[in-house]
Amino acid sequence: MKTTYIAERLFDGEQFHHNVPLSVVDGHIVAWNTLAGGREVRLNGTLVPGFIDVQVNGGGGVLFNDSPTLAGIAAIVTAHARFGTTAMLPTLITDRLEVMERAADAVAEALVKGMPGVLGIHFEGPHLSVPKKGVHPQQHIRRIGERELALLCREELGQRVVTLAPENVAPEVIRALVDSGARVCLGHSNADYDTVQAALAAGASGFTHLFNAMSPLTSREPGMVGAALESRETWCGMIVDGHHVHPAAARIAIAAKPKGKIMLVTDAMPPVGQEQASSFELFGSRVLRQGDRLNAMTGELAGCVLDMAGAVQNTVAMLGVAQAEAIRMATLYPAEFLGLADSIGTLKPGMRADMVLLDDAGKCLGTWMAGVQVFGL
Known about the structure:
Keywords: Carbohydrate metabolism, Hydrolase, Metal-binding. Its EC number is 3.5.1.25. By secondary structure, the protein is α/β, with parallel strands linked by helices. It has ten helices and 20 strands. The strands form four sheets. An eight-stranded parallel beta sheet has the order 5-8-9-10-11-12-13-14. Strands 3-2-1-4-18-19-20 form a seven-stranded mixed beta sheet, with no helix packed on it. Strands 15-16-17 form a three-stranded antiparallel beta sheet, with no helix packed on it. Helix 8 (about 310-320) runs antiparallel to helix 9 (about 325-330). The protein starts with a strand and ends with a strand.
């Protein structure tokens, strides 16, 4: 059945339009800017492409590490759909190999069953740097073994992102991961500039939550931050919540990188989607919520209660980025990073009908995954 949506305002990925019809059949956009028949639905607000989040640890009271199951993934997807996320990589932080395998099996099952919203998996660790571990459990940080390498190379896991510290993973291993189809991001690392360059030459293509948990840029040692900002080809995820990155540092990064190479991520934790949630357990330690900030008992930032609609709003309000560009940072650019820009990330004929309706303040009023409304009245 064809459904034609006519929104007050529509952002197609390039520019805004007013009262432009958009027709959907079988989950895909089939016509644009023409009344092509079918059921008509008028939408009050701004219709934009669905948000794509490549770093989602949890939501709806669920931490992926604690619930590496199909039900756990479904709960996380449902929580983030309230805030416009239509595609994500459930993210497993540093843990035991057995937990990694269970998470991988759950994602593989979700993909086989066609669970909406799931693109693959992000393994953030365990092959990280202890000095830059953040809240990752030190007891599980380790060198990569054959069994882990085989797990990270499993093709049935869809889009695979692996965050690692290049001082602990040899360039030839990075190359093997990339050759398997994984996207390697560098992060939680104290690597020097030359070590980062070797990892990039081996095929690493991204940096995980730029500025956070990585060697800084200084005058005589550029560190990982300097290498990330200098690189023209790589993508950088950035957490725009007002806590992880100072607005001035975020603006510098946006100015330094080529357009399209900074993408918004949430690094979301279980409280997202739970307005009353105040704290949760993380590997036996308490994480406290104070407003929109999460801290471990030892003081470190412990992920976020940020959602993608909020990240876009913050990028406009805190950084002075135009709304169109902020939306691209949450849609087109992560799609390009994942190599999926031919199917998601814009609202044009042939694309999957992943859509979000926003009000004038940028809050999510409705969410559609493959043409099916999963949130909103």
